Amino acid sequence: MLMKIKKGDVIRLQYTGKIKETGEIFDTTFEEVAKDAGIYSEKGIYGPVPIAVGAGHVIKGLDEQLEGLEVGKKYEIAVPPEKGFGRRDPRLIKTFTLGQFRRQGLYPFPGMDVEVTTEGGKKLKGRVLSVSSGRVRVDFNHPYAGKTLIYEVEILEKIDDPIEKVKGLIELRIPRIDLGKVTIEVGEKDVKVVFNDPEIDRNTLILGEILLESDLKFIGYEEVTFEPSVEELLKPPEESAESEEENAEAKEEIEESEKPVEENEKPEEIEGIEEKAVKSTKKSKTARKRAASRKREASIKKNEEAEEQAETQ
């Protein structure tokens, strides 16, 4: 008998996400598919992923359509832009002067990824659209905003055992943890998780426990206890000058992780961008782009030298 999935179920699934318009693969749980698509990351974790249906562990449009599906079957699911990476917003396209980039030693070109900082100190990522007449247009929309997503999905398992449900959620939130060093006790409405590995990164554990508490309450537990607790982990070690810095980093990670994946930056958040914060976030992806960048740089320098020579004559 095939089991249908409902909200709150803990399942294991595998999937591949593509852009409908282009067929570009942007996400997958398959290592070989990631390598073939050029999106493989050595830091990535591949294989079937455990999630709680409806908890927001996957993109909204996919999460909503998992309900009612059957274990063991394969599906193709279409996700519209508003439930994926959002619709494109023209207000998120901003113009800078070329000088703002040059002062940072940068020579922008279309397709170049950049990072800016707002007056409030928030870092935003964008992509250069055009460079002309001393102006640089940068798009702060998500690269896949306005695109329809296609997910090829297979639900491999519905996890029913209470202990295994908790293990699955721990695996999701703290993927590299040794589950052999975790003790789990579950009651009807309460759960206790003891982390016995003294070598686990403290910030990782703080973030993991906060997210896990939300997950465990979502699937029905009313009382969730951890050892060591978040409060204990946040206590600065005696005579440790780095403790406050670590706590601040942990808080920053928590706030970032709780932001919905499909949400675009709000237009008002990128007003008043500080010139000093414009910087490149990564090198161009191909040798062709790098060559083009060097060519543009040489051309710009040549023009500047010509201008200086003309001024002195």
Q: Total number of β-strand segments?
A: 13
The biggest beta sheet reads: 5 strands, antiparallel
How much strand? Answer: 15-25%
- Give the overall shape: globular
SSE string:
EEHEHEEHEEEEHEEHEHHEH
Mean pLDDT: 85
Low-pLDDT stretches: 282-287
H/I helix tally: 8
| Rg computed from alpha carbons, rounded to a whole number of angstroms | 24 Å
The rounded distance between the terminal residues' Cα atoms is 89 Å
How helix-rich are the residues, as a percent range?
25-40%
Structural class: alpha+beta
Structural notes for this entry:
The protein is an alpha+beta fold. Helices cover 30% and strands 25% of the residues. It is built from eight helices and 13 strands. Strands 1, 2, 3, 4 and 9 form a five-stranded antiparallel sheet that branches. Strands 5-8-7-6-13 form a five-stranded antiparallel sheet. Strand 6 (113-117) and strand 7 form a beta hairpin. Helix 4 packs across helix 5 and helix 5 (202-218) packs parallel to helix 7. Mean pLDDT is 85; it is low at 282-287.
